[in-house]
Amino acid sequence: MIVGVVGLGLIGASFAKAYKENEEGHTVLGWNRTETVADMAKMQGVIDDYLTDENLKTCDIVIISLYPEAAINWMEQRKNLFNPKGLVIDACGTKRMVCKEGFRIAKEGGFEFVGCHPMAGTKYSGMSHARGNMYKGAPMVVCPNRFDDMEILDRVKKLLAPCGFGSFCLAHPEDHDRMIAFTSQMAHLVSNAYIKSPNALGHKGFSAGSYKDMTRVAWLNPEMWTQLFLENKDNLIFEIDYLIDELKKYRDAMENDDHDRLVELLREGKERKEEVDGK
Questions:
Q1: Residue 65 sits in the same domain as residue 158
Q2: Same-domain check for residues 51 and 128
Q3: Any idea what the CATH number is for the domain that residue 133 is in?
Q4: 139 with 191, same domain?
Q5: d(CA 238, CA 93)
Q6: Co-location of 6 and 144 in the same domain
Q7: Can you give the pTM of this predicted structure?
Q8: Is the confidence at residue 184, as pLDDT, over 90?
Q9: CA angle, corner 22, sides to 20 and 25, nearest 5?
Q10: Is 59 in contact with 87 (CB distance < 8 Å)?
Q11: Are residues 181 and 163 in the same domain?
Q12: C-alpha distances in angstroms, 237 versus 11, 32, 85, 232, 241?
């Protein structure tokens, strides 16, 4: 295959490496807003050559790994240059806006676009932390324009096979954003707020696994997550308000020395974890 990768940060460069390291010998073309990053990617063998407006039409698949607004603009500016027989996907963390605009642009440009979200990453960012096995065994959420055409899912699976995804899940963009607010965005937001405690500076010697689990994703990319939070603010605000209400119950129980109520609340949380994720 000829693979185009737009955005050579952690996510995009990991896609590029996955195809480059595959034994099938795929050709990877790359584009990055900062040209020196693309130069470095070529020198290091992360990509074979630059992705240009001239060779964009040769790509069997184009993977756009930019911030949501930038991804939309990139497609809009080149909507008449894509391979009409190829596939264009994005790797953005929210889907409603990207899919709405992506489907429109694809229809106008005469190419196929599918919204995607690889559920993988690290606390680090940048091409230097990319790795070819980033997606091995990871879930991929797929948001197609049509849910009555199962061939599109088979096509996505085939084109992404070198990346080694462990599962593919179909979702409407609205459902994706609602769930991602709970499973990902809240974890990053709460972790980022939790680490601001005045006691954090003195935690060494007093912390173990629970502290590490709670703070792992506090180390985030502020600009990227700001865009994702604002684009999904309705779903995220719902989760924040719900958590605040729940935390207040625990606080009230402790303030009132209500032993039985605190036991009840803790038991409810334990049982819910068992219900959701198994014992």
A1: yes
A2: yes
A3: 3.40.50.720
A4: no
A5: 18
A6: yes
A7: 0.92
A8: yes
A9: 70
A10: no
A11: no
A12: 27, 33, 40, 9, 6
Average pLDDT, the chain: 95
pLDDT digits (tens, 9 = 90+) for 221-279: 899 999 999 999 999 999 999 999 999 999 999 999 999 999 999 999 999 999 999 86
CATH at residue 210: 1.10.3660.10
Task: At 129, list the tokens.
Answer: 């932390």
Six-digit token string for 76? 């809009």
Number of domains in the chain: 2
Q: Which domain holds residue 182?
A: 176-277
Regarding whether 256 and 142 lie in a shared domain, the answer is no
Secondary structure of the chain in HEC code, one letter for each residue: CEEEEECCCHHHHHHHHHHHCCCCCCEEEEECCCHHHHHHHHHCCCCCEECCCCCHHHCCEEEECCCHHHHHHHHHHCCCCCCCCCEEEECCCCCHHHHHHHHHHHHHHCCEEEEEEECCCCCCCCHHHCCCCCCCCCEEEEECCCCCCCHHHHHHHHHCHHHCCCEEEECCHHHHHHHHHHHHHHHHHHHHHHCCCCCHHHCCCCCCHHHHHHHHHHCCCHHHHHHHHHHCHHHHHHHHHHHHHHHHHHHHHHHCCCHHHHHHHHHHHHHHHHHHHCC
Tell whether 147 and 216 lie within a shared domain: no
